[in-house]
Automatic annotation (TrEMBL):
BP GO annotations: protein folding
Entry similarity comment: Belongs to the AHA1 family.
SUPFAM superfamilies: Activator of Hsp90 ATPase, Aha1, Bet v1-like
InterPro entries cross-referenced by the UniProt entry: Aha1 (IPR036338), AHSA1-like_N (IPR015310), ASHA1/2-like_C (IPR013538), START-like_dom_sf (IPR023393)
Pfam families xref list: Aha1_N, AHSA1
Start and end residues of each Activator of Hsp90 ATPase AHSA1-like N-terminal domain: 29-164
Molecular function (Gene Ontology), one example: ATPase activator activity
GO CC, one annotated term: cytosol
Name of this protein: Activator of Hsp90 ATPase AHSA1-like N-terminal domain-containing protein
Length: 340
């Protein structure tokens, strides 16, 4: 293997935030099929195609068969998608008999191989005479344009959502904020400088409760585990100074020391157990956070149980997990490609 700076760059050993895929050289792939089906349905259901002649509505995505994926090779993003779609529509003429007619829109091959204007769109109507034929012409002349717009929205959304986190920065590209104070996300401005106090800590009895959270991420369980245990990735999603020693008994400090604790147990891709506290809690009081990773066929679910949370802090702690952990991880690494 060549040394750093010498020879074939494919063999250069370089530290990466995710500790894998040096220089983004290797092929990585993320499945976008589930997201695509939901996106296509949301884009087409209830679409109106109105004119001076007729009022028409796409009522249902009857068939959505195929697959989609996002791929990274040699630092370049490549998107694959291939779908066969069947849409149902119904409508009636503005100055007609009032009778409603129905038909289908068939898109036999929506794929990256064809430009949007090249995609074949087939219009059918059940009653192919009289008013039915007029409605079919309206769909053909006006509906095709609207359908292509919706297909364009799907393709743009696919590329935007699944480009996130596919090409991770090199270690030297993850920069610390060059400021002394930053927003921690836990309702305070936290100082990057240690607070020194000469007073003796006061031990208080704390009335506590248990917090349970579940969240879905579109990634492998190991990817999510890494996002919570690799210092470069934790720095990326917290956007603050991080201290992290992910071993049993190892300590951590996040958000400039606003969150701190100790790792009690680590099972890669399966479980993390921590002693965890928020700086504003009573001195010396820690909760216990148990995070389990449940990998499904196309996503991973986190199950978090946090015991020992001060009752007065349950709501704000829940909000902060969701906003400053889960949402930030999804935005930073592209693990949140789910429709609301």
């Amino acid at each position: 293997m060549a040394k750093w700076g010498e020879g074939d760059p494919r063999w250069i050993v370089e530290e990466r935030p995710d500790a894998t895929n040096v220089n983004n050289w290797h092929w990585t792939e993320r499945d976008a099929s589930t997201w695509s089906k939901e996106k296509i349905k949301s884009l087409f259901n209830g679409v109106l195609i109105n004119s001076n002649v007729a009022n028409i509505e796409i009522t249902e995505v009857e068939k959505c068969e195929g697959e989609a994926s996002a791929n990274n090779r040699k630092g370049k993003l490549i998107f694959f998608y291939e779908w066969k779609l069947v849409l149902k529509w119904q409508g009636k003429l503005v100055d007609g008999t009032g009778e409603e007619h129905s038909g289908t829109v068939v898109i036999p091959n929506l794929s990256e191989e064809n430009d949007i204007h090249e995609i074949d769109i087939q219009i059918t109507v059940k009653d192919n005479e009289g008013e039915g034929e007029i409605l079919k012409d309206v769909m053909y002349n006006g509906g095709k344009h609207i359908i292509r717009e919706k297909l364009s929205e799907y393709i743009a959304g696919l590329k935007e959502e699944f480009s996130k986190g596919m090409i991770l920065p090199k270690k030297d590209e993850v920069k610390q904020d060059n400021i002394k104070n930053l927003s921690s996300g836990f309702n305070k401005k936290v100082s990057m400088q240690p607070v020194v106090s000469n007073s003796k800590p006061e031990v208080k009895k704390v009335d506590t409760s248990t917090l349970e959270l579940k969240e879905k991420f579109q990634c492998r369980a190991q990817d999510l585990y890494d996002a919570l245990t690799k210092i470069e990735m934790v720095t990326a999603f917290t956007r603050s100074e991080v201290k992290l020693d992910p071993v049993k008994g190892g300590v951590f400090e996040l958000f400039g020391g606003n969150i701190s604790g100790v790792f009690d147990e680590l099972v890669p891709g399966q479980k993390i157990v921590q002693k965890w506290r928020y700086k504003q809690w009573p001195t010396g009081h820690f909760s216990t956070v148990n995070i389990k990773f449940d990998q499904k066929s196309d996503h991973t679910e986190i199950n978090l149980v946090q015991t020992g949370v001060p009752k007065s802090e349950v709501d704000v702690t829940k909000q902060n997990w969701e906003r400053y952990y889960w949402s930030s991880i999804k935005r930073t690494f592209g693990f949140g490609a789910f429709l609301p």
